Amino acid sequence: MTIKRGEIYFVNLNPIQGKEQAGTRPVLVLSIDALNQLPLVVTVVVGTKGTNIRQDFPTNVRVLPEESGLPLETVFLCFQIRSLDHYRFPDQPAGRLSDEKMLEVEETVRYCLGL
Fold first, then answer.
1. Alpha-carbon distance 78 to 25, whole Å?
2. pTM, whole model, 2 decimals?
3. Which residue among 41, 67, 71, 76 has the highest number of C-beta atoms inside a 10 angstrom radius?
C-alpha cells in the first residue's frame, strides 16, 4: 500500500489518552512521501466534522467537501499532530487536498509549532 502526502484516510485513533481525538476520524497525511514509503510511521493532522467546530481558530483549517472529496465539511486540527503505524490505514484514501489547501495546512502547522 502506498500512502501519499495530502491524502485523507479514515483511521481509528483508539486507544487515546486525555484530550486526544478518539474514534474513527479523517486524518490528513502530512509526512513526506519518502518517509511514508519506509516501514516507520506516518505523520498526520487529525480532522473532525465541521459542525463540531463552529468558530474558526488560527490553529485549524476548514475544508469543504469539494476541496477534499469527503462527504462532509471537515476541520483539520493542526495542533493535533500524530504519528501512526501503517497498519491503521485502510487500503484506499477517502479524499485528497489540493496543493493550495496543503499550503494552508502547512502554514497553520508551522504556526502551531512556532516554526
1. 14
2. 0.93
3. 76
Give which of 24, 31, 32 is closest to 45, Cα–Cα: 31
Residue 13: left if φ>0, alpha if ψ -120 to 50, beta else—which one? alpha
Torsion angle of alpha carbons 43, 112, 72, 25, nearest 10°?
40
CA angle 16, 28, 51 (to 5 degrees): 75
Output the CA torsion 35→38→40→46 (10° steps): 50
Cell of 98: 489540493
Q: In what order do the strands lie in the sheet with 41-49?
A: 60-63, 74-85, 41-49, 24-29, 7-12, 95-96
Q: Which three cell numbers stand for residue 72?
A: 462532509
Residue 13 in grid coordinates? 485513533
